[in-house]
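Here is the promised in-class demo. Please do not try to memorize the tokens; focus on the logic of going from shape to residues.
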């Protein structure tokens, strides 16, 4: 939870900076076209996985394992990925969506402790523990352009983010873990769980043009809650504008923290992303 509080403070500071930019005297709005425009962006995101899973007690075990996952190299265990984003815009109003399917196999993990009904017992008996994760992250939101100048564009938006994920952890310890009441957590086994996470989000996104050149800096920041105690996502990159669309290279970070009885504890996906946007 300390990591969650630090990230919340950081995100609040970024929001304050964005609001200050929107309220600055130099942000004079320009009229936008009143026709619909559309953007489709296929992209590749290579996130590292880092966080803690709190499983329920698996069959044949008396305790619930807390499993530390990662950090791992970006491409070490990525088995399949599919990403696509889209936007429809008319005047200052917009609606956008983003879908990401990721399949990670055999992520380096470790059983950190076992909870025996409120009594947690730590362990360092790991020999070979691995976790596999696969699932879909989907965002749908609507926005309004609060700032639009030749140099700066800022949209404020609200929407929902969904994460549906399947997790399997296979553990191998040097010995069984004993609980205070005579309970036993076996030295080896497997546990599989699924989670559906729905969160309402608010945020800002846009771009800052670099002088009079076709280069610009895209950005995105959102905060949310619902199934999660806290979720946030940030993106910052460099891009080049063509007549037909944009080429973008960015760093993207997605964070989740749930209550102590849920699967995700201080869990994050972060890494580089490369995409091409087509406008029509």
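The designed amino acids, position by position:
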């Amino acid at each position: 939870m300390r990591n969650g509080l630090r990230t919340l403070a950081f995100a609040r500071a970024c929001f304050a900076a964005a609001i200050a930019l929107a309220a600055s005297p130099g942000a004079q709005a320009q009229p936008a076209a009143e026709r619909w425009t559309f953007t489709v962006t296929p992209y590749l995101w290579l996130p590292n996985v880092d966080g803690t899973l709190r499983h329920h007690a698996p069959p044949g075990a008396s305790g619930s394992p807390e499993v530390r996952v990662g950090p791992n190299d970006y491409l070490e265990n990525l088995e399949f990925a599919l990403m696509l984003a889209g936007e429809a815009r008319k005047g200052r109003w917009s609606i956008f969506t983003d879908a990401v399917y990721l399949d990670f196999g055999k992520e380096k993990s470790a059983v950190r402790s076992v909870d025996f009904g409120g009594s947690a017992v730590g362990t360092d008996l790991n020999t070979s523990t691995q976790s596999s994760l696969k699932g879909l992250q989907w965002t749908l939101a609507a926005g309004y352009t609060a700032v639009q100048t030749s140099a700066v564009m800022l949209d404020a938006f609200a929407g929902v983010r969904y994460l549906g994920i399947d997790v399997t952890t296979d553990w191998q310890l040097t010995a069984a873990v004993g609980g205070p009441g005579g309970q036993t957590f076996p030295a080896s086994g497997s546990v599989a769980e699924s989670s559906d996470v729905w969160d309402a989000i608010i945020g800002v996104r846009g771009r800052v043009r670099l002088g009079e050149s076709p280069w610009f800096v895209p950005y995105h920041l959102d905060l949310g809650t619902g199934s999660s105690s806290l979720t946030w996502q940030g993106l910052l990159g460099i891009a080049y504008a063509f007549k037909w669309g944009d080429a973008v290279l960015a760093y993207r970070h997605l964070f989740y923290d749930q209550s102590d009885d849920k699967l995700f504890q201080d869990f994050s996906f972060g890494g580089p992303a490369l995409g091409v946007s087509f406008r029509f």
